[in-house]
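Lab notes, practical 5.
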Amino acid sequence: MNESLGTSRSFHIFYYPTFRFAVLFFSGPHYDGYPFDGYGTVLAHAFFPGGGRGGDAHFDADEDWTTEERTVSKYRASVFAVAIHEFGHSLGLSHSSVEGSLMYPWYSMEIPSDFRLPIDDRVAIQHLYGPNEDRLNQSRFGLSDGKAYGKGF
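Output from the prediction step:
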């Protein structure tokens, strides 16, 4: 049983108009061809978007998970830090060779509460889904928080 999460397995399915994915915790083999190794080494894996299990993220239930920290060490793993990396895969991102990127293959940094997505990850996600039109319009018209500032407003 995973004490920090209060359960040995969690199951959540998220539905959006064009995207569905599940977040699951498993121990050992779990019928996807990528068995977990128990405590240590492999923390999670996720599948690229598509049919069937596409977009799903699987976490190793045998890890020492925490929701109180935002880093991964050899002793415990942050659900948040691992999830944002795995959800990158769920959205279609591959690993990056840029250290400091969320999609770097090894968890190597603490995720601060004021974290901004590194440029490498922003470029990759915008390549797949396009830029954030709301943000483009805000900067184009001098808006930052929905209020008008200068530039003729």
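Observations recorded by the TA: The helical segments are 79-90, 119-129, 133-140. Confidence is low (pLDDT under 50) at residues 1-11, 141-153.
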